[in-house]
Amino acid sequence: MLREPVSRLAEEAVAALAPASAAAAQARSLRHAAHRPWPVPDRPWLQGQTWRDLLFAHWPLPPEALRPAVPAELPIDTFGGSAWIGVTPFEVCGLRLRGTPPIPALSRFPEANVRTYTTLHGKPGIWFLSLDTPSRLAVAGARRAFRLPYHRAHAEIRRREGGVAYRTHRAAPAAGLDVRYRPEGPARPAEPGTLEHFLTERYCLYALDERHRVHRADIHHPPWPLQPAEAELDRNTMTAPYGIELPPERPLLHFAARLDVVIWTLRAAVT
Fold first, then answer.
1. What is the pLDDT of residue 11?
2. Mean of the pLDDT values across residues 3-9?
C-alpha cells in the first residue's frame, strides 16, 4: 500500500486508529443500538473492524440484470422500481478477533467490494458479488468463516490533500478499479425512508453454503456518517465478471470517513 504526504487532519486520523484505539471504539459501538431495525444478537460477536475513507458508488439497474449474479434463494431488493449495485473502495483498519488486539502487520489493508441488497425474514442485508484485497489472511479467513467471495488483488491507497486515490486490479476473473474521490459536504446519518438509508443502513450479510442453504451474519455499527462525495472513475470493470454493464450516468456517491464495526458468526437464516 502506497502513501503520500497527508494533511494534519489525516495524520490525526491515522493516530486515532492505533490498535488500542480502534479496538476500544469497536467495542463502544455496542452502547448505541436504538437505530437498529432489530436487536443485536444475544451472543458474543466474533470480529471487530474499523472502516476508513469509504466511497459508496451506486448505480440503478433493472432487477433482471442482477438476477444471474444473485442466487435464486434470495430476493433482490428494489427502491423506486430499480435494483441497485454498489462499488465500495475503502481501507480496513484494526481487524481483530474478539478479546485480542489488532496485529499491526496484518490488521490494515485496502478492500473493494461489489454488493447489492436482499431482505430475508424481514432483515435487510447485503449480498456480496465480490470482495477484493491484497491481504492473504482476509481472503483465507473470510472465505472460511463467512463463505464470502474474496479474491486476492493488487491494491493501493494514496491520500492526498482532501481526497483519496484508490486503485485495485485482479487478474482472474479480471476486474479493476481506478478512482479518485473526496467528501464534498458535512456528515449526517441517512433519514429513514430515503434511498441513502435503503442502501447503507443494513445490519447483516447473507451467504450460501455448499448445499445452497442461506446463512446470515449479523453486523453492528453506529449509523453511517454519510457525506456527499465527488469522484473521478478512470477505470471500473468490477462488474465485468458478472456480465453486468453499468449505466453511463454518473453514479450516486457518498463518502464515510470512519465506521467502527463488530460482526457475528454465520448462522442459518431461519428467522
1. 42
2. 38
